[in-house]
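Need the bound structure for LHQ, inputs here:
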Amino acid sequence: MSTIVFEIKDAVAFITLNRPEKYNAFNREMALLLQQKLDECKRAEVRCVMITGSGKAFSAGQDLEEVTDPNGPKITSILTEHYNPIIRRIRKLEKPVVAAVNGVAAGAGANIALCCDVVLASESAYFMQAFSKIGLIPDSGGTYFLPRLIGWQKASAVAMLGEKIPASEAEKMGMVYRVYEDAVFQQETLNIAHNLAAMPTKGLALTKQALNNSLINNYEDQLHDEEILQERASRTSDYHEGVEAFLQKRKPSFKGE
Ligand code: LHQ
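Answer from helper R.:
Posting the output first, comments after.
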């Protein structure tokens, strides 16, 4: 069985982390394959990406057996070759990426989920910045995204204590957009992915770009970027369809163009 299951259906690319017996912990093979599959999501037919885990976990982060293997990858190459390229691909991908956190998301597994555009979790899922428990620092963008998502104070405590943060608490903190009861989680996350896939994909990509820019821009630069990106959005056929459909009091049919 492949460590990543990949399927494109109805404009949604489903990426399933697939090492269930290891709680979908990342080894080199899985990390490189995830990068490859994220690249495949650039295809025009894909209008939304959903990342989830198979079995009980979303992902328990780095496979700790691999890091203790003398023939395994070195710590620095784990970041430069495995995780950082994954985070960059998710942030740069010009479509919405949904993290459907079906179970525990720990270490790099948590931070890959947290850098996605829409983070959904099942009631029984939990998040854990497990790094501190083994003497490491939060990586995979954790020290960047966490304080921006939940504020400095909570980010420091979450990063240092490495406690289990239940999905409901993560939602209150601002790590997660919505939590669903386990029984309806799969259906509800599918609905969100399909909704996103039917939306104006180019407009969403430009929204993502504007939000990415806001992480580094000052206020004036951000207003300037909004002028440029909004003008670009207004040149899409989906924009024209959206306005026309509104005026004609009908449902819009967006093509992602
Ligand atoms: C695992 C793992 C795992 C291997 C569960 N590896 N097998 C960057 C740079 C360089 C180095 C290191 O890492 C990084 C980035 C990082 O991600 S650092 C953080 C690495 N992750 C962790 O420290 C989390 C380790 N796992 C846990 O603390 C627990 O497994 C959690 C809290 C996730 C789940 O606990 P339980 O529900 O009690 O499950 P379990 O511990 O029994 O795990 C289930 C199985 O999965 C078990 O296998 P077994 O054969 O005994 O049934 C675990 O050994 C395996 N597993 N995480 N990271």
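Comments: Strands lie at 4-9, 12-17, 48-53, 97-101, 105-106, 118-122, 126-128, 165-166, 178-180. The pocket of LHQ is lined by residues 22-23, 25, 60-65, 67, 75, 78-79, 104, 106-108, 128, 130-131, 134, 136, 139 (CB under 6 Å).
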